[in-house]
Design a protein that fits this description.
Layout: H1 3-6, E1 7-8, E2 15-18, H2 19-28, H3 33-40, H4 42-48, H5 58-69, H6 76-89, E3 94-98, H7 105-115, E4 120-124, E5 127-131
Parallel strand pairs: 2-3
Antiparallel strand pairs: 1-2, 3-5, 4-5
Helix pairs in contact: 3-4, 5-6, 6-7
Length: about 140
């Protein structure tokens, strides 16, 4: 699977996460015991699996981390909240997620409730545009 399929970014383009490809990669992944633990407790994996390699662009880090935590074993809403959390941790304030289908209003409400911080969600067909406002101190 090509690098650009999972998370693409141009010079002025917003980061676009292809959720469909993440789900496909998750289905094909051979799970080890450690991977299973990271799938159940993904934020443990985010903290412990950061690599000490050369610094990379935030979209590339987001893609690598997302491959570790996206799971077909949880709802789309939970996976989307995980992606939003990862983006916020990588200091990506605006991005979009390409979905297999448009989310219902109740799914959007669930995403807002699960994220539990201010969040702007705007849906255009199968694209979910996300803006994370800066936290005020």
């Amino acid at each position: 699977m090509s690098e650009t399929k999972l998370a693409a970014v141009g010079h002025n383009d917003p980061v676009c996460i292809n959720y469909i490809d993440f789900l496909s990669a998750s289905c094909k992944k051979r799970w080890s015991f450690v991977d299973a633990i990271y799938g159940v407790i993904p934020f443990f994996g985010i903290i412990t699996r950061k690599t000490a390699a050369a610094p990379r662009a935030a979209p590339e880090c987001l893609k690598d981390l997302a491959l570790q935590i996206i799971s077909t074993q949880v709802s789309d809403e939970i996976n989307i909240v995980r992606l939003i959390t990862l983006a916020q941790q990588q200091q990506i304030a605006r991005f979009e997620i390409l979905l297999p289908y448009p989310l219902s209003e109740s799914q959007l409400i669930t995403v807002r409730q699960e994220y539990a911080r201010p969040l702007e969600l705007q849906q255009q067909d199968d694209r979910l545009h996300i803006a994370i406002p800066p936290l005020s101190h």
